[in-house]
Design brief:
It contains eight helices and no strands. It is mainly alpha-helical. α6 crosses α8.
Length: 134
């Protein structure tokens, strides 16, 4: 085992033991190929093994694209849900004016509540969602 990967494994294990999962994930993402090898993977502690499985599955879901929702996107989605639940169409239109592309993304649809899906589909803001509502 080389000194560099040994240090990396020690840092990941220490970060996971101290519940610093953000730091551990950053180290894992940088060294993902090495740490996913069986001979190095077995040296990780239980929390690190779970975290590396999560990072690998997350990278498979994204398929190389970086289309993750930001905090601002999630706040906008929450506002859209709130406006639709309260039937505040004027504020909904103002919000959609600036974030129409966000609502078109397929990864956003699970975050919309039933009211939002119905109202946005009737407005024509959700393309292809008319047949998915039941």
């Amino acid at each position: 085992m080389s000194g560099n990967i040994g240090t990396t494994i020690a840092k990941v294990n220490t970060a996971c033991d101290n519940l610093e999962f953000v730091n551990a994930r950053a180290i894992i993402e940088i060294n993902l190929l090495k740490l996913s090898e069986a001979k190095y993977y077995r040296l990780l502690n239980a929390n690190a093994k779970v975290l590396i499985k999560h990072v690998i599955s997350d990278s498979k879901v994204n398929d190389g694209t970086n289309n993750k929702l930001t905090r601002a996107d999630l706040l906008t989605i929450n506002k859209i849900n709130e406006y639709c639940s309260n039937f505040d169409i004027s504020m909904l239109k103002r919000t959609l004016k600036n974030s129409f592309e966000l609502v078109q993304r397929s990864d956003v649809h699970p975050y919309l509540n039933k009211d939002a899906k119905i109202i946005l589909a009737d407005m024509g803001a959700l393309l292809g969602m008319e047949y998915q509502l039941q």
